[in-house]
Design a protein that fits this description.
The protein is mainly alpha-helical. The chain folds into 3 domains: about 15-60; about 60-95, no CATH class; about 95-129, no CATH class. The protein has helices at about 15-60, 65-70, 80-90, 95-110, 120-125. Helix 2 crosses helix 3. The radius of gyration is 31 Å and the shape is elongated. The termini are far apart.
């Protein structure tokens, strides 16, 4: 047996292990702060979004709004057009999204009636084999 095996001296781990431990603690500490700031930013964003929704729902609708909401350009704003306009105002949907949905609708509207039926779906989307 070696004499140093029985010594009461506390042995220190190698420097590489100490560096790894320090780095691990630093990463965990930084991660906690990062999550904290993300949480604060999310709360702030939610608050601003709620304020925007409240403003959109309580402000007076003008003729300019009706013209902007009239997607079909027929001078009449239906419920669907009005809802889409309000969603755009709230930032929940954008014009590009609407155009994508309209393209899909037009592709599914096989008989070009302006409405969708089960028959349209069968004709526009033939069964996959």
């Amino acid at each position: 047996m070696r004499i140093d095996q029985f010594s009461n001296k506390k042995q220190t781990p190698p420097e590489s292990i100490l560096s790894e431990i320090r780095l691990n603690r630093l990463v965990r500490f930084g991660s906690c702060w990062f999550r904290f700031f993300c949480y604060i930013a999310e709360l702030n964003t939610e608050s601003r979004q709620k304020d925007l929704v409240k403003w959109v729902l309580t402000r007076r609708t003008t003729n300019v709004d009706l013209e902007a909401a009239d997607l079909e350009g027929d001078g009449i704003v239906g419920a669907a057009e009005f809802v889409l306009y309000k969603l755009k105002e709230m930032g929940k949907i954008n014009q590009e999204d609407i155009l994508l949905f309209m393209d899909e609708f037009e592709n599914l509207d096989f008989d070009q009636s302006g409405t969708l039926s089960g028959c349209d779906l069968k004709l526009a989307q033939p069964a996959q084999m």
